[in-house]
Amino acid sequence: MLAASYADGRVVLPEYSGQRTECPGCGGVLVACCGEIVVNYWRHLNGQDCDTWAENPSAWHLTWQKYLRSLGAATEVHIKRDGQVHRADAVLPKGTVIELQSSGLSVA
Fold first, then answer.
1. Looking at the predicted structure, is the pLDDT value of residue 19 above 80?
2. CA separation for the pair 11, 3 (Å, rounded)
């Protein structure tokens, strides 16, 4: 995830490799992955993402999230519904939820 966005409005961006924070979704430990090739992002320390829909973020995905943040969108927003927790890629200031998808999806 690009940013750890908390319910109280705090947003924590990864600044250096090894930095740690708490996952806003599950409370687990997040570790920052920073380098010269890929956009900085958070990953779960245990390697298990708490969102079952999550996939490893591509450079394309992270670049779009960074752009949407520059427009005032919140990124990596945890949404809880019917006992399930998922992370929306972005939520615009007026509440529109954006899910970024670069590959095709089947109708099913």
1. yes
2. 6
